[in-house]
Design goal:
By secondary structure, the chain is an all-beta fold. Helices cover about 0% and strands about 55% of the residues. The chain contains no helices and eleven strands. It has strands spanning about 1-5, 10, 15-25, 30-40, 45-50, 55-60, 65-70, 75-80, 90-100, 105-110, 115-119. The strands form two sheets. Strands 2, 4, 5, 6, 9, 10 and 11 form a seven-stranded mixed β-sheet that branches. A four-stranded antiparallel β-sheet has the order 1-3-8-7, with no helix packed on it. The radius of gyration is 14 Å and the shape is globular.
Length: about 120
């Protein structure tokens, strides 16, 4: 089972990027999904999350109104649309899948994709 991020890159402040996370080897539609990021010298932090059925989304205050998380359960893909990017959004972005089932936790992390925003 794995998740693989793509779509990172280098952009200027104010521009947009869309990250994708392709899942395989597990029942994607049964997992809550999230995006996290880690900037150099900082702890990994939550960015956005979405429930298994897409009914509820949550965002870090720092990205509310600029980022949008979505998922396509038919294609096993998670997205993060990032608009109005700021230099402080520069980080490695990670995809995370998690599920609690019968008292056992299951989770998978991707290897990350670099997002660099220049001023």
């Amino acid at each position: 089972a794995q998740v693989v991020e793509s779509g990172g890159g280098m952009v200027q402040a104010g521009e947009s990027l869309r990250l994708s996370c392709a899942a395989s080897g597990f029942t994607f539609s049964a997992y809550n999904m999230g995006w996290f990021r880690q900037a150099p010298g900082k702890e990994r932090e939550f960015v956005a999350g979405i429930m298994w059925n897409g009914d509820f989304m949550d965002y870090a205050d720092s990205v509310k109104g600029r980022f949008s998380i979505s998922r396509d359960n038919a294609k096993n893909i998670l997205y993060l649309q990032m608009n109005s990017l700021k230099p402080e959004d520069t980080a490695v972005y990670y995809c995370h899948a998690n599920r609690d089932f019968l008292g056992k936790k299951y989770d998978y992390w991707g290897q990350g994709t670099q997002v660099t925003v220049s001023s």
